[in-house]
């Protein structure tokens, strides 16, 4: 569903309409708001966001070692716990609910992931200008949940008020918990990509529910009405990127 009045756009992608993926015969399943072109999903990469998946483990399961290059890959542990191994740190590291890891793949890194049963994660690939980043050495860093502070129901992961620094330009990522109606001011020079982690709500009077994904651009303000207590994961990115993206 989308609304487009004079280039003001709100696009809504229900979970069932997002791209689908799985690992290990369905032990890990994914819905992908922004999938790979081969996933045949409704939404292709835009701005400097290349990929976005929500993954949940139905059983303990390991994704075997595989390579990455160029992209900044950020994993958010939403529920449960995971373990990470890569060829840079050369050991397994456990991450739990609320933890975040950042892989700057640079000239190349290979990694493996273990998801414990009933765990869920976001994995988001950002494009920091891969035509330059492929010449940089890879980096890995993780951040425990206590690193992130909440103020006025807003938890900032990446942005001006965060000490986490990434190479991808003009990115802000935060979580918003809402139990009452609000109006949010937006920057018309940015996309706002919103994943609903919990609750039911209305955005500009359009019904939204858990696992819906909303892409917003060219609008100064949105009105949010809460039907049930909600949790929104929001990523803002530039409408116009200053470099040629991989897409």
Task: Tell me what you see in this structure.
The chain is mostly beta strands. The chain contains one helix and 21 strands. Helix content is about 0%, strand content about 55%. Strands 1, 2, 14, 15, 16, 17, 18, 19, 20 and 21 form a ten-stranded antiparallel beta sheet that branches. A hairpin with a 2-residue loop joins strand 18 and strand 19. It starts with a strand and ends in a 9-residue tail after the last strand.
User: What's the end-to-end separation, in Å?
Assistant: 24 Å
User: What would you call the shape?
Assistant: globular
Structural class: mainly beta
Could you state the oligomeric state of the chains shown?
single chain
Secondary-structure element series? EEEEEEEEEEEEHEEEEEEEEE
Quick check: average pLDDT? Answer: 94
Radius of gyration: 17 Å
Compact summary:
This protein is mostly beta strands. The protein has one helix spanning 130-133, and strands spanning 2-5, 8-13, 19-23, 28-34, 49-57, 61-68, 72-79, 81-86, 92-96, 100-104, 109-115, 120-126, 139-143, 150-151, 154-158, 172-178, 182-185, 190-203, 206-208, 213-217, 221-238. The protein is built from 1 helix and 21 strands.
